[in-house]
Amino acid sequence: MDGKAFIEKWSKIASGYRLCRYVVFLLLLFVGYLLMLYTENVEREKIILLPPAVYSKVFIANDSASPEYIKEMADYVIYLATNYTPDTIDSRLREFLKYVEPSAYQRLKKQIKEISADVKFYGRVQAFYPEKFQIDPQNKQVLVTGRLVKSYMGKTLEDKKQTYVLKYVIRNGEFLVTSLYPANKDQEVKK
Fold first, then answer.
1. Same domain, yes or no: 83 and 143
2. CA 150: distance to chain centroid?
3. What is the full per-residue pLDDT of the chain (191 aa) written as tens digits?
4. Are residues 8 and 87 in the same domain?
5. Domain with 168 in it: what CATH number?
6. What is the domain range of residue 26?
7. Domain assignment present for 61
8. Predicted structure pTM score
9. Is 10 helix (H, G, I), strand (E, B) or coil?
10. Torsions phi, psi of 178, nearest 5?
């Protein structure tokens, strides 16, 4: 009796081990399949930078985007680059540099350092209130027209209409600034 019970017990244990090996084998196949899917899709992953608020439906493709997205991004980067006080200029312009295209980074960083030193030395405050955006997707530029107010020690130095030219590229779904400068009167486009 003991031999028969032992063989039966051994048979149950062996079948349990076979079942465990089968389950482990299936789990290994499943993990291998998941790793294969991961390696195929790891190149497709993208990080898309968005402004803090998006007020309309937007789409972003590899090298293009909807006009609404371009307007929202232009509004945000213009805000970062043109609204500052001596206390906030460094943080605003550092945030702006996150949106600058690598080939233009050093040039814009040098300009930003000069602006920052000037603002801190003279204690200037500047605010730009955008009113109109003209998007030119063919030339990859946005003309932003608005009111520019500059003040020093609580006194308004300038209060004028200003247009900024924002040139950009969209690379792999990422909005990057290539240049930003005030437009001359002959560069302004009227609709």
1. yes
2. 29
3. 577 777 777 777 888 888 888 999 999 999 999 988 888 777 665 555 556 666 667 667 667 778 888 888 899 999 999 999 999 999 998 899 988 999 988 988 888 888 889 888 888 899 999 999 999 988 999 999 999 999 888 788 889 999 999 999 988 778 889 998 998 754 444 33
4. no
5. 3.10.450.230
6. 2-44
7. no
8. 0.68
9. helix
10. -100, -30
